[in-house]
Amino acid sequence: MPLVPKSRPSIEPIPADTYQAVCYAVVDLGTHLNEKWKTEQQKILIAWEIPSVRYKYERDGTQFDEARVIAKKYTFSYAENAYLFKDLTNWRGKPFTEDEIKSFDIFKVLKQNCMLQIIHTENNQKTYANVSGVVKLPAGMKLIEPEHTVIQYSMQENEGDLSGLPEWVGGFKVKDIIAESIEFKGDPAPQNTDSDLAPTEDDIPF
Hints:
There is one protein chain. By secondary structure, the protein is mostly beta strands. The protein has one domain (about 15-185). About 15% of the residues lie in helices and about 40% in strands. The protein contains five helices and eight strands. Strands 1, 2, 3, 4, 5 and 6 form a six-stranded mixed sheet that branches. A two-stranded antiparallel ribbon has the order 7-8. The radius of gyration is 18 Å and the shape is globular.
């Protein structure tokens, strides 16, 4: 009798729409070389749960019903033209002052609610869901808490130890991405002058 791999059910992309979401993960991906511009850029990943869209599956005889997740990878920069800065500003619903953004701890977005705009893109005849917008939750909406374990990972604090990270976060293989970073490979990395992932003592509300 032939032995063949078990087929895995395909997961449909999250439908294109606008959803209430909650941030459950912020992962420092380390510094990477941008081949196009020949520059070194620090990258981070922010991931959200969308509890109104569910993923139901069975594993080892146990039924699971989980909130769908999605993530966006950013260059870790608070420059005004950076995608991260624009999304953070829209997420909090008001501009940052110069002093606020200089010392803003990115981990403050963990467990914060927002509205996510999801769009679909096509690549190699496959459809992918992507985060195109992050905005403040409208007043009066009930806050939601993450269902998944909250993930807070800093290359500096964890000293490159990946044992506490899952393989996948929001559709990205984070361990593989970190393993390609300059820090993980042991090469010298430029000092990040935009911010510091390590939590600060500044009590700046998000």
